[in-house]
Design brief:
- The chain contains no helices and ten strands.
- About 20% of the residues are buried.
- The protein is mainly β.
């Protein structure tokens, strides 16, 4: 049986890029077989920043980026959502929710696993 959709956080560039520490981004993936509207979805940190209201849609087997501040962080890929509020340098606990249902929780409260 093929999953209709499975939205998940697949990568987090918490440290920004070589160009700017403010160029943070979060990658989402739909590993399912159908497009999903992200209306009513949120991604938020336990400490309240960032708190991102998702919009748009993500196609079957597609990746999308949430970019901090502007859409120039990752050349060649348009941002699904531009967000404000920095990811904590010491780590975060992030919750991806569809309405009130928690879809995924990632805890890096003890520090990010890699990067600087």
């Amino acid at each position: 049986m093929t999953t209709r959709y499975k939205i998940e956080i697949t990568e987090i560039a918490w440290m920004g890029t070589a160009v700017s520490a403010n160029d943070e981004w979060i990658e989402l993936r739909n590993s399912g077989s159908e497009s999903v509207s992200l209306s009513g979805w949120t991604l938020s940190a336990a400490d309240g920043t960032p708190s991102i209201t998702l919009s748009g849609s993500i196609g079957a087997d597609e990746y999308k980026l949430l970019e901090r501040t502007d859409d120039t962080t990752y050349p060649g890929m348009s941002a699904l959502v531009i967000f404000t509020g920095a990811l904590g340098n010491e780590g975060e606990t992030l919750a991806l929710k569809q309405g009130s249902a928690t879809i995924q929780t990632l805890s890096f409260a003890g520090g990010w696993p890699a990067g600087d």
